[in-house]
Amino acid sequence: MPFDHTNNRTLRILHAAAAGGYAINAQSCYDAQSVIALVRAAEASRSPALCQLFPVTMAQFGKPFVQFCLDTCHAASVPIAVHLDHAASDEDITRALDWAEQGTALDSIMIDCSHFDTDEENINMAKPYVERANRLGLAVEVELGRLAGGEAGVRVIDEGMLTKPDKAERFLTELGAQMLAPSIGNIHGRYINPPAFHLDLLEKLQSTVGPGTSSNAYLVLHGTDDLPDSLFTDCIKRGAYKINVNSWARDPQVEYWAKHLSGGALPEVYEGGMVEFEKVCKRFFDLFGSAGKA
Ligand SMILES: [Zn+2]
Question: pTM for the full model?
Answer without folding.
Answer: 0.95
